[in-house]
Write a structure and sequence with these properties.
The complex is a heterodimer of chains A (130) and B (162).
Chain A (H helix, E strand, L loop, with lengths): L3 E9 L2 E2 L3 E9 L2 E4 L9 E4 L3 E8 L2 H6 L4 E10 L6 E16 L7 E8 L9 E3 L1
Antiparallel strand pairs in A: 1-2, 1-7, 3-6, 4-5, 6-9, 7-8, 8-9, 8-10
Chain B lengths: L8 H15 L1 E2 L2 E2 L3 E5 L2 H5 L8 E13 L5 E14 L3 H21 L8 E3 L2 E3 L2 E3 L3 E3 L6 E14 L6
Parallel strand pairs in B: 3-4
Antiparallel strand pairs in B: 1-2, 4-5, 5-10, 6-7, 8-10, 9-10
Helix pairs in contact in B: 1-3
The chains are: A mainly beta (130), B alpha+beta (162).
Chain lengths: 130, 162
């Protein structure tokens, strides 16, 4: 079972992102269900576009603020204690859309970058995990 | 054989604390006649008492936590023992507190060169964190003794930067 000790080597395009505490992302396949008159349960489903979005949490608020609007491939490695179990993640077509920052007494800076991702060809997931 | 570089930062912190106490002066007069370093609690307790005030920097331990980007947040735990001679108990308490406050001012004025605050999610260690001092003005009359715990934080760039 892999245990991820660290998130390292975080890059967006050619830009390194440091002080990263965590990266999380979601690939969703939204759908809406419906039924006809007299049905108590849905009998049909309409799928929407699959969506990839996520957040990057980091401590350097100035660095985070400067990344809003930047785009490129997001890459990072979840380091396992056994390097053979490292998870290398690549998400193409990423754009940083929001930055939420916080500074507090006796605490590390906290910044949360939100991003979404688009597919290169409309059919391939932007996310690759190896 | 692996060729290593040893920064020995925790010792640098201890030595800088000792130096700050040695340099401490009020109105041009040194606060402490002697300042020494030990790692032994027993030695700190059996210190040779003198006519003038003394200080002993006792090293306790070094702790570390892993931070982002492979950095380490560390802190050296010290107890600074000070002792002075006064005839009356009230005088001993006053002098003990004066010396305790002199220790704090001396180290805050001239902090160790490597002292640094650090933190991660949900935690923060200040560059210098003072514990609760303990004063004893009766056991070794006519001396007063004050034990002042302090933690000095510092950062290491990587696992091989110790």
């Amino acid at each position: 079972m892999p245990y991820y000790e660290d998130v390292s080597g975080v890059t967006l395009g050619s830009t390194s992102i440091t002080t990263v505490q965590s990266v999380s992302f979601t690939e969703s396949s939204p759908s809406t269900t419906m039924g006809g008159d007299g049905n108590s349960y849905p009998t049909a489903r309409v799928r929407g576009m699959r969506q990839v979005s996520g957040t990057i949490a980091l401590a350097d608020v100035a660095q985070a603020q400067a990344l809003v609007g930047d785009a490129g491939t997001l890459g990072f490695t979840g380091e396992d204690s056994a390097s053979s179990d490292d998870a290398t993640v690549s998400i193409v077509g990423v754009e940083i859309t929001d930055c939420s920052t916080g500074l507090s007494h006796a605490g590390a800076g906290t910044a949360s970058l939100s991003f979404n991702a688009i597919s290169a060809d409309g059919t391939t997931s932007p996310v690759t995990i190896t | 054989m692996s060729e290593l570089t040893v920064a020995n930062t925790d010792w640098e912190v201890v030595d800088d604390v000792r130096e700050a106490l040695e340099k401490a002066a009020v109105s041009g007069v040194a606060v402490f006649e002697r300042v020494s370093v030990t790692a032994s609690e027993q030695q700190a307790e059996e210190v040779e008492y003198a006519e003038s005030s003394i200080a002993i920097v006792r090293y306790a331990d070094t702790a570390q936590l892993w931070l982002a980007d492979g950095e380490y947040g560390c802190f050296v735990s010290l107890v600074i023992h000070v002792a002075a001679k006064k005839a009356t108990e009230a005088g001993r308490i006053e002098e003990g507190l004066r010396l305790k406050n002199a220790v704090v001012n001396a180290i805050e004025t001239d902090p160790p060169a490597n002292a640094s605050g650090w933190g991660g999610e949900g935690q923060y260690h200040k560059n210098i964190e003072w514990g609760t001092p303990a004063i004893d003005a009766r056991e070794r009359e006519p001396w007063v003794r004050v034990n002042i715990p302090v933690e000095v934080g510092f950062k290491l760039a990587s696992a091989t930067s110790h």
